Amino acid sequence: MKKLLYHIAIFACSLMSSLSFSQNDEIKGYRIDGNDVVFTFDKNDYEKATKDNFGDVIDFDDLDIKNVVVSGEFNNWSKNKWQMTKISDNKYELRKHLSDFTDDFSWEFKFVINNTYWAEPSKDIKNKVDAKDRNGSQLHVYNLRMFTAKPDENGNSCFKLNGFKNAKKVVLSGTFNRWDENVFRMNKTPDGWELTLQLKPGDYEYKFIVDGNWMEDPNNPAKKTNEYNGYNSLISIKVPFTFLLKGYENAKEILLAGDFTDWADNAIKMKKTTTGWTCTTLLSGGKHHYKFIVDGNWMLDPNNSVQEYDGKGNVNSVCMVR
């Protein structure tokens, strides 16, 4: 039986306090603009730079900046590939589509000056994280962390925790931010605490941290056991996805079946159009296997060349939702 996932529909939270998104003022290095990640480098945000293998610390004022590169986990820490565009005397930008990143929901990165010097984040930047080498040893400097999730008062996922009015700080933490314990600080309301995020389609786990104490969402029945013998709450963010099958004008009935319908058990009846058949359904993020059932006969999508075996010897059509 499928595990029940708690589906958060698209809606806006009630009006936030004046502190609503002040936390974003401390997040440096990037912003989410629609379906794009915009990396932003401002020379005024940095005081020091370092060089590989030497440990030399250089004052930023001593650098003659000729180019700035975004380097991170998403491009194997390349010092050359993702060169930024200069937009003013001190600022550089680089725009990348969210589809340029895999399904990971957070990434570590830094800025590289002149393909040589690493711009070192200061301690007061909210989205900093301790930098480590490949063996997990501390490097005693910081990386920046980018989250594909972002606080947005018009976002698609509103998290609420009622009560706890005497709490000093409540943080939302989950797989969408690698369980970060600081960045997504919730806002106090007359009823408790809340925060609205814009999330990519997908299935997520999350918890609340109330004054340092972790707890699952008491108003969400969907949960799973974690490695600490406790529970994580679950949500599923879905988006409309349209399937099309051209032709087959003489067919009496065509069904859409896939891993999202338990295959034939809950297959969806498609609608006939002037050019064929269509069906729109809500899908979570990631990869989905599917087929059409034309008057009882199973068939692959003839207009989709992406196919995979399902581990049982069957070949299915594949669609991706991002």
In brief:
With 322 residues, the chain is mainly beta. It is 0% helix and 48% strand. The protein has three domains: 126 residues, Immunoglobulin-like (Sandwich); 85 residues, Immunoglobulin-like, CATH 2.60.40; 75 residues, Immunoglobulin-like.
Shape: globular
CATH architecture of the largest domain: Sandwich
- Model regions low in confidence, pLDDT < 50 over at least 5 residues: 1-25
Percentage of residues assigned to helices: under 10%
Mean pLDDT figure: 86
Our Rg estimate from Cα atoms comes to 24 Å
Percentage of residues in DSSP E strands: over 45%
Order of helices and strands: EEEEEEEEEEEEEEEEEEEEEEEEEEEEE
What structural class do the secondary elements suggest? Answer: mainly beta
Number of helices: 0
CATH class of the largest domain: Mainly Beta
Q: What's the domain count?
A: 3
Describe this structure in words.
With 322 residues, this protein is mostly beta strands. It has three domains: 22-147, Immunoglobulins (Immunoglobulin-like), CATH 2.60.40.10; 153-237, Immunoglobulin-like, CATH 2.60.40; 247-321, Immunoglobulins (Immunoglobulin-like), CATH 2.60.40. It contains no helices and 29 strands. The strands form five sheets. Strands 3, 4, 5, 6, 9, 10, 11 and 12 form an eight-stranded antiparallel beta sheet that branches. Strands 15, 18, 19, 20, 21, 24 and 25 form a seven-stranded antiparallel beta sheet that branches. Strands 22, 23, 26, 27, 28 and 29 form a six-stranded antiparallel beta sheet that branches. A hairpin with a 3-residue loop joins strand 9 and strand 10 (117-120). It is globular and about 75 Å long. The model is unreliable at 1-25 (pLDDT under 50).
